[in-house]
Amino acid sequence: MALMPDIQSIVILTGAGISAESGIDTFRSAGGLWEQHKVEDVATPEGFARDPDLVLGFYDMRREALSKVEPNPAHRALAKLEREFAGELLLVTQNVDDLHERGGVEDVLHMHGQLKSALCLSCEIRSPWDRTMFDRPPCPVCKAPSLRPDVVWFGEMPYQMDRIYASLLTADLFVSIGTSGAVYPAAGFVQEARAAGAKTLELNLEPSEGSHHFHEARHGPAGDLVPQWVDEVLGGETG
Ligand code: BV8
């Protein structure tokens, strides 16, 4: 099905699959992040309370791995879309990596937080962070040794949900890239957008759990599908 010619506003949701070709483990592929750890042990407030060393170490490892990976063509294609698309664009990511930013995207909405941010449990202020937390470093603001990863764990409220829902209601096109559609509320965005009249497109390696909600689904590596789709949306204006 051809995409709508007059697309004025696009909402994009990305997941771990867009960073897979950069060498960052996804959550649910064989040997993925959750295979190495039980999610309730490392991505819940209860798990953090039970074993803070395990959780701080898990996120320290993932934060340190960021310096060893690079953005891939899918990340760079979305930066080109942001630069050249004349309409409204909102990029929402479930990813806590910084590859969208390093790929050139200016405005990224990290609904599940980010590895390179620290949240202080004492003063509740967030600070940019690219070191370890296992060693209980002092909060840059209040100096208390009470930093936690600024990521959204299961049972916690994702960030900027009002802004996301407002954009879903007015989007002409909702595109989901590299996500299994396994975790809510992100997995429900396609239904919100479709109910509000948006065209919906899934770009994923294989059909996701929510594939049936999409008007169109294309399957293959994001590094191939996303640049091709961006060229379509920009009307083949690629240089
Ligand atoms: C909330 C950040 C409410 C941390 C993450 C029953 C019991 C308990 C809870 C629930 C329940 N039912 C629903 C819930 C709520 C729960 C939930 O949905 N659970 C699921 C498991 C059922 N959700 C929550 O708890 C959320 N909060 O509901 O709050 C609330 C209400 C009021 C007040 C307070 C609270 C919060 C969820 C956020 C958890 N944090 N991440 C971290 O990163 O460590 S989740 C994490 O997994 C990701 O952020 C992402 O959201 C999620 C799924 O990951 P994906 O990105 O989709 O990755 P995945 O590996 O699954 O899939 C990758 C895809 O890519 C695959 O499809 C693959 O085919 C594809 N792919 C692979 N390679 C490529 C590719 N595609 C293209 N190219 C490739 N090369």
Features:
alpha/beta, 10 helices, binds ligand BV8
Structure in words:
The mean pLDDT is 95. The radius of gyration is 18 Å and the shape is globular. It is of the alpha/beta class and 239 residues long. Helix 6 (73-84) packs parallel to helix 10 and helix 8 (161-170) runs parallel beside helix 9 (189-195). 32% of the residues lie in helices and 19% in strands. A 6-stranded parallel β-sheet has the order 3-2-1-7-8-9, with helices on both faces. It has a 3-stranded antiparallel β-sheet with strand order 5-4-6. Bound molecules: ligand BV8. The site of ligand BV8 has 35 residues, from helix 1.
Which kinds of small molecule does this entry bind, naming each only once?
A: ligand BV8
Order of helices and strands: EHHHHHHEHEEEEHEHEEH
Strand content: 15-25%
Secondary structural class: alpha/beta
Helix content: 25-40%
The largest sheet has its strands arranged as 3-2-1-7-8-9
Low-pLDDT sequence parts: none
Q: Largest sheet, described in full?
A: 6 strands, parallel
Number of helices: 10
